[in-house]
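Hi R.,

As promised on Friday, here is the backbone we talked about, encoded as structure tokens. Could you run it through your design pipeline when you get a chance and send me back a sequence?
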């Protein structure tokens, strides 16, 4: 966990108080259902609606009882009289715990969805700003062909939109409750009461539960957070590469008074992006215990519980922070368009090789022969560190088919950006 940077809203979702509040909310909702069926009298349910718990007493009882939920029910009973007998009537602990967990996960996902919206806004603004800012596209870290920086950002925007859809799907998976008794048979809690209570709480019902809501749902959720974190890792890694001294096309925000090294005052390190990459590894790692939690013994064992107390809160809190931090980085990052143009010249025009290749083929040259001619001149230019165009102009096989301006016109960056507007329109960006 990273409490130094935890935003209070997400921290509150995973607080002990919110957990207890949700447990009490579920217990009261079930009692309401029993009251509507005439099991609990009107006088009794009126008192139960005002039930409360005491955190300190709960902790004291837990030290004695070694069972957090029984201790909680005992604390609730302290706030009631004889009507306390109806609290937890017919239920097992995970009827309440898993249903309450569905409520907390739904709250957490709402915050994460708002984070994604903010990041989408930030990426979209910068993508439109740099829609036509040319830069070198790279494959294997090597100059490939020109693109626009805006197009790079547009791919980030679309990826986060997919993540938005993934998180919506994950919410449907985990916003689920169950009130089916100790082994899911409904022997002590009728199905209609389960449906009614879950509906009142805004949750779907686990159609066939055991003693717990099935953990494939939670594994799906954690895996989804891992995918989102991996997207942020991709964006952060790209910025880290672009901030290298030899490249220096983009820099993450560096505030007044900030320092980059205890020993080297000149350093401006991409430490925020590195932080995101590190936390992404953590969240991806949580997928393993989440997957392991799917296979419980028979109708339930408790091996999942200890892991979930760590991974669910940590993953939500860490991703909440990462999304907020990435939005800040994107909004305030420095984009050095002049440096992008300078770097494009560092490969002596070799990035235009495919266009020359296609032009020679279009003129009737065999593809294999054209490739050899284009490549051999490219290697000469690279070894000599001189403009590629000059070597092509001196090659009779090339100059006879592509004389004068016809060859020169192929070395035009704008040609590679001519469909950028169409790509943005495709995204609706």
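Update: got your reply. Pasting your designed sequence below so it's all in one thread:
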């Amino acid at each position: 966990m990273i409490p130094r940077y935890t935003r209070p809203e997400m921290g509150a979702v995973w607080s002990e108080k919110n957990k207890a509040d949700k447990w009490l909310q579920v217990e009261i909702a079930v009692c309401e259902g029993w009251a509507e069926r005439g099991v609990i009298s009107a006088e009794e349910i009126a008192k139960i609606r005002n039930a409360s718990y005491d955190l300190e007493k709960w902790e004291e009882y837990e030290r004695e009882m070694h069972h957090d939920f029984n201790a909680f029910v005992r604390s609730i009973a302290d706030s009631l009289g004889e009507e306390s007998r109806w609290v937890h009537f017919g239920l097992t602990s995970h009827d309440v715990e898993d249903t309450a967990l569905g409520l907390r996960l739904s709250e957490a996902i709402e915050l994460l969805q708002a984070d994604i919206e903010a990041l989408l806004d930030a990426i979209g603004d910068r993508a439109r700003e740099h829609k036509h800012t040319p830069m070198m596209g790279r494959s294997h870290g090597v100059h490939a062909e020109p693109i626009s920086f805006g197009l790079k950002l547009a791919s980030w925007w679309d990826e986060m939109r997919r993540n938005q859809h993934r998180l919506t799907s994950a919410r449907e998976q985990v916003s689920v409750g169950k009130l089916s008794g100790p082994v899911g048979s409904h022997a002590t809690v009728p199905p209609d009461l389960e449906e009614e209570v879950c509906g009142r709480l805004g949750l779907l019902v686990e159609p066939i539960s055991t003693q717990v809501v099935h953990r494939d749902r939670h594994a799906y959720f954690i895996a989804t957070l891992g995918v989102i974190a991996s997207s942020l890792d991709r964006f952060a890694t790209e910025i880290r590469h672009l901030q290298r001294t030899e490249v220096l096309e983009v820099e993450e925000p560096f505030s007044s008074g900030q320092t980059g090294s205890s020993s080297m005052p000149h350093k401006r390190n991409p430490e925020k992006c590195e932080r995101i990459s590190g936390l992404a590894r953590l969240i991806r790692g949580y997928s393993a215990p989440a997957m392991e939690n799917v296979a419980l013994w028979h109708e339930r064992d408790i091996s999942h519980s200890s892991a979930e107390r760590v991974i669910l809160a940590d993953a939500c809190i860490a991703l909440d922070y990462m999304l907020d931090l990435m939005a800040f980085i994107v909004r305030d990052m420095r984009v050095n368009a002049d440096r992008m143009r300078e770097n494009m010249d560092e490969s002596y025009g070799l990035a235009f090789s495919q266009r020359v290749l296609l032009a020679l083929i279009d003129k009737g040259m065999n593809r294999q022969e054209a490739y050899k001619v284009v490549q051999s001149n490219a290697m000469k230019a690279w070894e000599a560190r001189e403009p590629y165009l000059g070597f092509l102009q001196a090659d009779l096989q090339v100059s006879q088919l592509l004389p004068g301006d016809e060859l020169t016109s192929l070395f035009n960056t704008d040609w590679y950006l001519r469909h950028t507007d169409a790509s943005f329109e495709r995204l609706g960006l």
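One thing I noticed while checking it: The CA atoms of residues 65 and 71 lie 7 Å apart.

Thanks again,
M.
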